[in-house]
From TrEMBL:
Lineage of origin: Bacteria, Pseudomonadati, Pseudomonadota, Alphaproteobacteria, Rhodobacterales
Record protein name field: Microcin C ABC transporter permease YejB
Keyword Isomerase applies: no
Residue span, ABC transmembrane type-1 domain: 130-349
UniProt keyword list: Cell membrane, Membrane, Transmembrane, Transmembrane helix, Transport
Keyword Transport: yes
Amino acid sequence: MAAYILRRLLLIVPTLIGIMVINFTLVQFVPGGPIEQIIAQVQGQGDVFGGFAGGAGDAGSAMPQGGGDERYIGSRGLPPEFIAQLEREFGFDKPPLERFLTMMGNYLRFDFGQSYFRSISVVDLVLEKMPVSISLGLWSTLIAYLISIPLGIRKAVRDGTPFDTWTSGAIIVGYAIPGFLFAILLLVLFAGGSYFRWFPLRGLTSDDFETLSLGGKILDYLWHITLPVIASTISAFATLTLLTKNSFLDEIRKQYVMTARAKGLSEGRVLYGHVFRNAMLIVIAGFPAVFVSVFFGGSLIIETIFSLDGLGRLGFEAAVARDYPVIFGTLYVFALMGLIVGILSDLMYVWIDPRIDFERRGG
């Protein structure tokens, strides 16, 4: 097992470099970089996309001809010195290969630089947004597992009964409803819409959060996070519940279960003493990956609807603004975490069922 883990760890380096190379290369061909963003603001367009909408010629039509740099949309009429200064500040005066090698050298030291437009380091920016993502990711994953696993076991035991039928229908309906639509429905029903005003409309905490007692802070936090967590969790029930049910059904039909029942063991002993470990292998071992996908992936729409400033909105805003340090810094960290979580998932397989030997299987 140690040799397998070592091979997986060594594979992280080329995989991570490959991810960064592909994304860095793609960005070189995407129009509307940070320099175009600054030029658009100088020209009074607000953002670079106004230049695309109105046409490149319109952006500089009112400016004197000549000057500027034709590589950048809307730069006509701007002093070449101004464009050159912007390139030096953003590091675009160097060849792409040199910029990539410098960036990767800094990232190996976990130095992700500063945001182009926020005057704050990327690490501090991510840490600032992380509480929202932790709240949504952790609570959504835990609630999904705490409800879906018992429900899936119950459905497997009562397979084909009316209980199994109507719960399957309810789960499928919940899965089919888009998360953003369900979030809006929750707001209308329970957050001051046309019906009840039981929960706050926005934010993770109240304005007077700092003045509350410890118990008051906990209650205030739970009060604010309830609706966003429900909205982000509803679609996770279907996959996890049906996966649990099918895993239990496969195990219940095996010979060792029939043997255990023939020995006179109680149904509870058979299910939780023999079936549970084998049936839940794939479900429990996938917990790290599920949590990281929810945590890092975030939910842009859920965060926007409930006015939560998390990693989902951060990634979207960085992509729109072409804030490359934020984009590449978070991509590097998230890719590294994803690769490490893949190894942790394999270790959980072995921990839950020691019979699994990845080394013998050839990794």
